[in-house]
Design a protein that fits this description.
The complex is a heterodimer of chains A (392) and B (106). Chain A has nine helices and 18 strands. Chain A has 392 residues and is an alpha/beta fold. Chain B contains four helices and three strands. The chains are: A alpha/beta (392), B mainly alpha (106). At the A-B interface, β12, α7 and β16 of A face α2, β3 and α4 of B.
Chain lengths: 392, 106
Amino acid sequence: VIADADIAVVGAGVMGLALAYNLAGDRRGPGGKRIVVVDGHYLAWGASGRNGGGVRQQWSTEMNVRLMQESMDICAHFAKRMRINVWMRRGGYLFLAGTQAAARRLERNVAVQNRCGLATQMIAPEEARELVPELAVDRFVAACYNPTDGIVFPWPFLWGYAHAAAKLGVTIHTSTPVTAIERRGGNTGGFRITTPAGRFTAERIVCAAGAWSPDVARLLGASLPNRPQRHEILSTEALKPFLKPMVTVSETGLYVSQSLRGELVGGISMPAEDDHGQVRLGSRLAFTTAMARALVELMPRLGHVKVVRQWAGPYDVSPDGDPIVGELPDVPGFHVVCGFRGHGFMMAPVVARHLAAHLCGGAAHEFLTTWSPARFTTGTPPRPGGETMFIG
Amino acid sequence: VARKVILCRCEDVTLADVQHAVSLGYRDVEEVKRYTGFGTGPCQGKECLRGIVEAIGAAAGPGPGASPGAGPGAITTALPFTSRPPLVPTELAVLAGAARAARSRK
């Protein structure tokens, strides 16, 4: 039996759990503060359990830099506040550029980041080799490096948020897929939500189902424009610590970092596939070999390191590349927070904080305008996405 | 039984670790894998999976998957976690060579 809710959050990934935690802890509300989270699978089944764990503040737009500075701060205090080890290591992020054009893009981004108080620096390839002696840097013309970026182990964030939210009275129902959503009497009557574990009502719904969000919206007859895009990651045997920063290559979308467990974890861009809107999670040999080749070219000494496993997860991609956050114009009471294109994990702590404050009656953060779903309604001219610093 | 029983030798996961995970409500093999890290090392669970499933069963008692009247430890249906390629740990150089070979055939 699931209790009726003021706000039902669909999706127990990092976004949904962080949102529930922030909603429950907000002194202003909402209403009676009954918050329910439902998810069709177990914790960490979806993209929150499948991402590479990177947390960076290097972006191309001021809003994203500032958001991620705040998110980094939340991450840095998470272990102590939530009493759980998140295996965080701040070794920085190193972006390598193989062409003058890519180098100029990095320069422009670094200027934006410096304006926000971030200490990113353009460095020469030789300096990059001082940071990572294993790098074959002759193919690169420039790099940028911010020492305060880092990596985390994603799963403990879910357990940390889930346990803290539960302590604040949130009920979390895993293995509980939403199979139907109906309106209760007009546009202001809330919703009736059906699951195999029973029906319950909610005044408002927040859909935080990532790449599966269009499936949830469809239950209400609404369509979302974001599409899933398969991305794969491989992990090697554990090595002694040698790789300080997360290393990324602009031209190939390659990224690789060494976790606190010692494993190298990384991925690379693959050609787009026609997925027909379906999330695909199968592993492909083409990825493993492309990644292995690029990694050995980047760091030739890694040739004898063994790959131990690989897996896939979906990027959740909107038409202009920016997230989609807010109430759907045609479906009052139904909010979405999706379309984060592979960086939803690192943004969840800060996005959830501000979205929760707004849902409790607080001020609207700038992102609620920039990322509003209203930009995709018929008649609104398409605009280019603001952010260009994507990986993978 | 010795106090420290290691079930997953790659990742040093003990019987007590599994029992702790179950006590927190993680009873699915996939959930216990994530919470304890068992099966994520070089053998990818090939050595420990059976022992861990039995430990989960013993700690969780008869669940929805148990047959009627089955006592603690009697798991009748438990699926292994999703197996991940490669089948055995494989050198990056070997995989990189496979990429070159595939290209030269085209």
